[in-house]
Amino acid sequence: MKAAGSYAMAMVLLAVAGNVRADLRSDYYQRAATRDRDAFQALDINHDGVVERPEIVGDNDFGPRFRDMDRNGDGVVTRDELALYIRDHYGIDEPGAAQASMTTAHVDQPAPSPPRSQQASAK
């Protein structure tokens, strides 16, 4: 009987410890997501809603992860790309994360022209 009671107590303690660990991880991810959002706001010097490479010069936190955040490789991180990064790395859904895609186009940049080989074959 004592063994069964000890076993039950051990199981309860393990369950509680697992929940505490999950809560600590969740808290950490929330803080990390908040830190990334705050860094985005601070680094967006010209307040155009995107962070460009020149804006991250000297930043040792956001800067090294810039390529991971820049989903479409265009050299800028948009709010939607940041939301996708936060969802993928921290499991936190941000507003806009579901709408972002790899084909994000920026209004102030012209659409890329097709390679010359495709232009020649189209004629």
Condensed summary:
53% of the residues lie in helices and 5% in strands. The chain has helices at residues 2-43, 66-69, 79-90, 116-122, and strands spanning 50-52, 76-78. It has a two-stranded antiparallel sheet with strand order 1-2.
Features:
single chain; 123 residues; 4 helices; 2 strands; 53% helix; 5% strand
The CA-CA distance between the termini, in Å, is 88 Å
Q: Class by helix and strand content? A: mainly alpha
Give the total of domains. 1
Largest sheet: 2 strands, antiparallel
State the share of residues found in helices, binned by percent. 40-55%
Low-confidence stretches: 99-104
Task: Give the strand order of the largest sheet, numbering strands 1, 2, ... along the chain.
Answer: 1-2
What is the CA-atom radius of gyration, in angstroms? 23 Å
Q: What characteristic shape results from the CA principal axes?
A: elongated
Say how many strands there are.
Answer: 2
The chain-level mean pLDDT equals 77
CATH architecture classification name? Orthogonal Bundle
CATH topology, by name, is Recoverin, domain 1
Percent of residues in beta strands: under 5%
Count of separate DSSP helical elements = 4
* Helix-strand sequence: HEHEHH
**Any idea of the CATH class?**
Mainly Alpha
Written description of the protein model:
The chain is mainly alpha-helical and 123 residues long. 53% of the residues lie in helices and 5% in strands. The N and C termini lie far apart (88 Å).
SSE map:
Blueprint: H1 2-43, E1 50-52, H2 66-69, E2 76-78, H3 79-90, H4 116-122
Antiparallel strand pairs: 1-2
Helix pairs in contact: 1-3
